[in-house]
Every structure is written in C-alpha cells, then in structure tokens.
C-alpha cells in the first residue's frame, strides 16, 4: 500500500453533494482537496471547512486542467467525482450545444478524471463516481443527462476492471433526487418532482450528507472487496418506474 491513506480529492466539491462529501471526509480525518471549476466557491468551501482542506481549480472538460490537478496530487488515496450539471430539453427541441455540454461535463469529464486519477492514485486507492438513478431510468426531457449517466455507470465498470491489478477500487453511487443547487437551478418538466416523490417509497428527497455517508464507506477499508459496483441511493425510487409526465 503506497500513498497517503488519508488524502482525498473531491471534484465538484464546492457545492451540493461534493461539499457534503468534503465535509464528511474532513470530519473523518482526511486531508481534502476541493477541486472545482468555480475556484472562488472552492476556496470558500475550503475556508468554511477549515482544518486540512485546500482548494484548486479544475475543469473536468479540460484535459490539461485535470492532468495538472492530479499531477499535483500524486499518491492521493481517494478520488470522488461529483462534478455535474444537467441541461434539460426534449430531444426534438434540444440544441446540439446543450446536449454536448452535458455530455462533456458528465461523461467526458468522468473519462478524464478516471484517466488521470488512474495514473496518479495510490495503490489500494478508491475512486467514487457520482452517477444517477437516471443512468438506468429514463426521464422525460433528460436525454443528454440520462445518456451521460448511463455512460458513467459503464465507464466505472471498465475502469474497475482495468485498475484492479493495482488494487484500485472504482465504484459508483446512483442518487435519486437530492436537495442541492443543481436541482434548484433547473426547470424540469412541470409536475415531475411531485410525482417522483409520490412514487418514492421513503417519500422524500435526499440530503447531500446521505450521499456523503456512502462515499465515506466506499472510500474506506469497510468496502475493501467492492469494485465495479453501483449503489442505488434514492429512498427506494429505483424500485418503481420513473414518472412519465
Ligand atoms: P451542484 O450543482 O450542487 O454541484 C456540482 C458542482 O460541480 C458545482 O460545484 C460545480 O461548480 C461543479 N462543476 C460543474 N461543472 C464542472 C466542471 N466542468 N469541472 C469541475 N467542476 C464542475 O450539484 P449536485 O446536485 O451536488 O451534483 C453532484 C453530482 O451528483 C452531479 O454529478 C449530479 O449529476 C449528481 N446527481 C445529483 C442529483 C441531485 O438530485 N442533486 C441526483 C443524481 C445525481
């Protein structure tokens, strides 16, 4: 086992699930680097969390930016990719540019993170990618996001195969609806959220901290035999059909 076992890089760590993850890992004693395209927000997050938390700018759609970030974090033990966005739109209406942006951030971004994390992570390290319930359940008006997240689930499986000989585990978490700025900032099809929550067995949306707990588990030796897996974390929403409104 090499590298610093208590070091973590949380990409997209300035907000929502990433911020909660950075907070949880810091509380567990990890030295955390918050990496985000929004450098000012990343710095604010690091200042908020205090302790051994630092911030860097990283744009997951930019190969040089991702490469540089990981070169400076050589030997990191835990990498969490929470960077993401969604630009909704029906297929017949969706601009190519909007399709491409979601694919670039969610899918190509995951590829670039896996590529450079795979090169620089410590032997025995853990990579966790935040996918989505929409990676396996289609949602009206969410073609680019669903397609990207389906790709993320497959990328995680391929990376798990390719990195296993170095003892690096690669897993995904597929959240359902979680209360974060991402959800607040997009206008989904009217009625979708209400119907989705009515259809969720535990009857509510998730909190970012509930995703962070699963990340902390996957990062730890408690998950030492787990790779190529995806955890459904959604109040049971995967047990029912995604609403079609
Ligand atoms: P958020 O908007 O609160 O946080 C996303 C973070 O990613 C932001 O800090 C943003 O600056 C950063 N980011 C965006 N583009 C980036 C880029 N190119 N390079 C680096 N950083 C970038 O969103 P969130 O809800 O916390 O989402 C985190 C992840 O969880 C995303 O992958 C999202 O798709 C996924 N997810 C969210 C939900 C939900 O309901 N909130 C559900 C399922 C999956």
TrEMBL record:
Q: Is the keyword DNA repair in the record? A: no
**SUPFAM superfamilies for the chain:** NAD(P)-binding Rossmann-fold domains (SSF51735)
- Enumerate the InterPro entries for this protein: KR_dom, NAD(P)-bd_dom_sf, Sc_DH/Rdtase_CS, SDR_fam
Q: Which Gene3D superfamilies match?
A: NAD(P)-binding Rossmann-like Domain
Q: Keyword Oxidoreductase on this protein?
A: yes
* Molecular function, one GO term: oxidoreductase activity
Q: Where is the Ketoreductase domain?
A: 6-176
Q: Keywords of this protein's UniProt record, alphabetized?
A: NAD, Oxidoreductase
Family affiliation: Belongs to the short-chain dehydrogenases/reductases (SDR) family.
Name of the protein in its database record: NAD(P)-dependent dehydrogenase (Short-subunit alcohol dehydrogenase family)
Name the source organism. Answer: Nocardia fluminea
């Amino acid at each position: 086992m090499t590298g610093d076992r208590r070091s973590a890089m949380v990409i997209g760590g300035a907000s929502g699930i990433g911020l909660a993850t950075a907070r949880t890992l810091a509380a567990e004693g990890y030295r955390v680097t918050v990496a985000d395209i929004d450098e000012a927000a990343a710095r604010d997050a690091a200042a908020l969390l205090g302790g051994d938390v630092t911030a860097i700018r990283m744009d997951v759609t930019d190969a040089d930016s991702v490469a540089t970030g990981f070169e400076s974090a050589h030997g990191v033990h835990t990498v969490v990719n929470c960077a993401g966005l969604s630009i909704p739109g029906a297929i017949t209406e969706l601009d190519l540019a909007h399709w491409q942006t979601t694919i670039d951030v969610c899918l190509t971004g995951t590829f670039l993170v896996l590529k450079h994390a795979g090169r620089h992570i410590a032997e025995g390290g853990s990579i966790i990618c935040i996918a989505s319930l929409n990676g396996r359940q289609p949602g009206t008006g969410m073609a680019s996001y669903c397609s990207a997240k389906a790709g993320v689930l497959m990328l995680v499986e391929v990376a798990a195969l390719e990195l296993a000989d170095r003892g690096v585990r690669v897993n995904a978490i597929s959240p359902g609806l979680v209360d974060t700025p991402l959800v607040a900032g997009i206008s989904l099809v009217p009625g979708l959220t209400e119907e989705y929550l009515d259809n969720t067995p535990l009857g509510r949306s998730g909190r970012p901290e509930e995703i962070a707990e699963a990340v902390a588990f996957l990062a730890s030796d408690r998950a030492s035999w787990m790779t190529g897996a995806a955890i459904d974390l959604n109040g049971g929403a995967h047990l029912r059909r995604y609403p079609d409104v």
